[in-house]
């Protein structure tokens, strides 16, 4: 049985926008977090692509990755993920090939098959393109081909991109991407930070069907975990009310800007809404260092993943940085 010391700890940054701060503040804080993660020894920091969401500032994912790469030196950064239905595969390959050329061995490309937004915004992103999620496997294969050495008489060459060997991951919250990642021999990251329902089934499907490849010789799985870690359970539960309000806004179609914590959530949500938030955060680890360590050990014993990738929606930016300090501390205890 593996321990927390045996697995990798990483960060998924959604670049949350506070209700009292500017977008610029959030973008600068994302860099502050990346630099903090580098000093603490996190394995990687990924950015997630979302669009038309007033509380998330990572829409131009590749651009923001360049900002983080230019101002860090060793941390692996990447996309968790690029929502492939929104993009032409060649453009993605050129963008990430450029980043790999400028910052060798530090960029990673995680790919998702959902649009990461609403239907109207999806149409605005695609501008008449008819790609669907069903085309996802072909698009993944096309991107992989752009990162390999060019073939004789290859008519379209990604420049930069060709022969850069950018590491590619598949992401998902259902069984589709798990099966595709297994067939292609790619690492797989499950989005249990917001959709944990099919986690166990997807991981088992991936492992059972994994085919060794030029990329991996055995399965590699990471899973998303929301966290709010503080010095006491009471403080963590108080800080977590910002995260609960954010999900409540998502359920109601309201603002996703991060709000200050409150003493009582019962005044804000109905019983049904509380159940929905609890389901959303079924994998969340909220509490003191000791409480969260015990929770993570329980998850690891159940799913035996290779890596945890943590999210955190804490309003106070200093407390947010401390959250990731606490996580590294409990890993090394």
UniProtKB/TrEMBL annotation:
The family database entries (Pfam families) matched by this protein are listed as: Bac_luciferase
Q: Where is the signal peptide?
A: none
Statement: the UniProt record of this protein carries the keyword Lipid metabolism: no
Q: Annotated Gene Ontology MF terms?
A: oxidoreductase activity, acting on paired donors, with incorporation or reduction of molecular oxygen
Which UniProt keywords are given for this protein, alphabetically ordered? Answer: Oxidoreductase
Luciferase-like domain mapped to chain residues: 21-297
A Gene Ontology CC term for this entry? cytosol
InterPro entries from the UniProt entry:
Bact_Lucif_Oxidored, CmoO-like, Luciferase-like_dom, Luciferase-like_sf
SUPFAM superfamilies, per this entry?
Bacterial luciferase-like
NCBIfam families, alphabetized:
oxido_grp_1
Q: Which family does it belong to?
A: To bacterial alkanal monooxygenase alpha and beta chains.
**What name has this protein been given in UniProt?**
Luciferase-like monooxygenase
Q: Which organism is it from?
A: Acinetobacter faecalis
The taxonomy runs: Bacteria, Pseudomonadati, Pseudomonadota, Gammaproteobacteria, Moraxellales
